[in-house]
Amino acid sequence: AKQHGGGTFRFFEAAANERLRSRQQTEQALRLAVQENQFVLHYQPKVSCNNGTIIGAEALIRWQHPQHGLISPAEFIQAMEESGQVVAVGRWVMHQACLQASRWHARGLGPFSVAVNLSARQLREGNLVQQVRQVLEETGLAARWLELELTESMLMEDVEETIATLGELRALGVRLSVDDFGTGYSSLSYLKRFPLDAVKVDRSFVQDIVADPNDVSITRAVITMAHALQMKVIAEGVETEAQLALLIANRCDEIQGYYFSRPVPAEEMEIMLENGKTI
Ligand code: C2E
Ligand code: CA
Ligand code: CA
Ligand code: CA
């Protein structure tokens, strides 16, 4: 939390108290949620720009609250990160997603990869490499089908240590992508230092790509440079056919977004896979 200067008004103190109380309440509710298994995963398809088929899915957590219904991660991930609960819950997410992918494989659906979002604390604490190795063993999923998504800011902290950890994960055979690319300050040439397989172009660029020639140029430059560094490019938040067409024209590798499908429960994902849904 930010420190206020000398002349802090009571109003702000009251607001800070309010926030604190609600923070504690949130943490307690989250503890209960962990105990009672109130989390579920939804899956959003990743679609190949080459042949229009589903080649994977990103697992996205939701909180199935007994009173308030389905709660979006935007409302609780930050609190879980601050309390440290994200480490245990993140492990659950990884296990659940790998188990699901492994079951889909066993039923002949696929080839199919599953992507999981990592939090900063998972990367720093709790022996991530060993956790990943264990989860793959427990679920029987081959490492190459697991993709871990990290944000730029996570890469920028403790660079040397991060490079070492990512190297170990890569050695297991797991694939690594940079999430929300373009929202931070790193350049692709900087990312070259990290063992990464893919770049996910943030939805803010994709959004304006049709109206704003600058965003087309940026996206094209990112794609060209990523390819030069042997990285794949995934565009996030693709909502319209026009966006899709521009991305395909600029040699984007994969797309994800409402245009193809919103994140859906596992059963709905399974129906798309069985029906062989394509773009
Ligand atoms: P993210 O990793 O960038 O995930 C993409 C978000 O964009 C998802 O929001 C998804 O529903 C949304 N989205 C996908 N396609 C479109 C589109 O076409 N248009 C628009 N407007 N939005 C689209 P969601 O599921 O609410 O997740 C929000 C964020 O919460 C994620 O952003 C990720 O940072 C975090 N998150 C989700 N699940 C986990 C998790 O298991 N662990 C951690 N650490 N973070 C998670
Ligand atoms: Ca993500
Ligand atoms: Ca993202
Ligand atoms: Ca995001």
TrEMBL record:
Ranges of residues in domain EAL: 23-277
Name of the protein in its database record: Diguanylate cyclase (GGDEF)-like protein
Source organism per UniProt: Azospira oryzae
Interval of the full protein contained in this chain: 292 to 570 of 846
